[in-house]
Amino acid sequence: MELSKYHSVYFLGIGGIGMSAIARWFKHKGLQVAGYDKTATPLTYDLIEDGIEIHFEDTIESIPGYLNPEKTLVVFTPAIPKNHVQNAYLKEQGFTILKRSEILGVLTKNYKTIGVAGTHGKTTTSSLIAHILKSANVNMVAFLGGITTNYESNLVMNGEVNDETIVVVEADEFDRSFLRLFPAMAVVTSADADHLDIYGDHAAMIVSFKEFIKQIHKGGRLVIHNSVKELALSNTAIEVDTYGHNQGVYSAANIVTKEGFFEFDLIGFKEPITKIRLGVPGFHNMENAIAAALVALKLGISQNNIKEALASFKGVKRRFEFIIQKPNLIYIDDYAHHPTEIEAFLRSLKSMYEGKKLTVIFQPHLFTRTRDFAKGFSESLSLADEVFLMDIYPAREEAIPGVTSDMLVADITSKVKVRCNKQDLMETLKNRGFEVIATVGAGDIDTFVKPIREMLLKNYR
């Protein structure tokens, strides 16, 4: 399709992290950009400050009057419900309407694309790759699934867009979105069971990952975690590099750790890359850094540039994000919303702050995910000393009878476990002693970060 014929783009679900990156791209290209979202968030406020018109009412009257079926492209997220008023109206009026994944496929089609896939780690890994490339002054654009702390954006660019531009993009398995991408290089960090509301079972999800790998260009390259290396057998026309913390062809050695921050050697080459210092904590982030370093090396980035970029990387908002760092009080916010992610996050915290009381405030995300992984959630949350369990954030879903946060409580073995909701959370947290506290989840729990921070600092001694 010819994007040049459009003078405006309208987004249904503009506040989504992936949607907003594309909105920023079109705004950068000089098009008029507007959109709808269900809820105002810090991200929608940022977009409004950037000059993007956003409203929060699903009514026909809210649609900007300048929209034109011939000159306006409409982009929607699959999270938009089937009964959405504006979506139905725009269809009736003959607008061209594309899914976010479809427009991402169009935007990346003519560029050398690096697609980062995986049920965990893709946002940090793609952000690391983007940071390395930008730091090395490579001509690039990155559409990210998180706000990078280094650039305060989910759209990272360097240089003018031309035939040499490298595009970094998250290859999202949700709704099989990554099957719209045909990358020259790809990363697969993991393939744990998730999105079973879409796939039905884990086996069907694995099939989609294999299909994604098949779409890597002939002669291209796949960087894949050693634990899922069998997926690479679906495409024999590409080069494959396996990696891991302590497995795969490329791994870490001579690891030195101090409060969760790492220095390590990357081995697997004739000569190892020594004394890599990582600017973000966590065992899982060391693996993400190895994958990003491998991609950069294969693109011809020097070892020194890679080492400098990994050391200066400040992380991604809501990915192991430090909110408070005081001698006797640590507060971290994290996006983890799958049992495997929660376990990795909490194990890192316990390693970093051994002997400290660990308090977790968790908001489950989606009824189906809570139902499908209830036991795993209870087990991973039990790593904390105290668990404050909020109601399920529904996102795109309708409630499922019998599926609530209560079904997790019985199997959580933490010393303290408290059920709460958004209305009573702040009151419940009052006058309690905290040492290490974390807010965890992919819903709207981030709206509590500021009030919790203010409450903690007010009571901090």
Describe this structure in words.
- With 461 residues, the chain is α/β, with parallel strands linked by helices.
- It folds into 3 domains: 3-99, 3-Layer(aba) Sandwich (Rossmann fold), CATH 3.40.50; 110-312, Mur-like, catalytic domain (UDP-N-acetylmuramoyl-L-alanine:D-glutamate ligase, 3-Layer(aba) Sandwich), CATH 3.40.1190; 321-459, Alpha-Beta Complex (Protein-Tyrosine Phosphatase, Chain A), CATH 3.90.190.20.
- 31% of the residues lie in helices and 25% in strands.
- It has 15 helices and 21 strands.
- It has helices at 17-28, 42-49, 85-92, 100-108, 122-135, 196-199, 202-214, 283-298, 303-312, 339-352, 367-372, 374-381, 406-409, 425-429, 449-459, and strands at 8-12, 32-36, 53-55, 72-76, 96-99, 112-117, 140-148, 153-158, 166-171, 185-188, 221-225, 239-243, 251-258, 261-267, 273-277, 321-326, 329-334, 358-362, 386-389, 416-419, 436-440.
- The strands form 4 sheets. The protein has a 7-stranded mixed sheet with strand order 8-7-9-6-10-11-12, with helices on both faces. The protein has a 6-stranded mixed sheet with strand order 16-17-21-18-19-20, with helices on both faces.
- The model has no long low-confidence stretch (mean pLDDT 94).
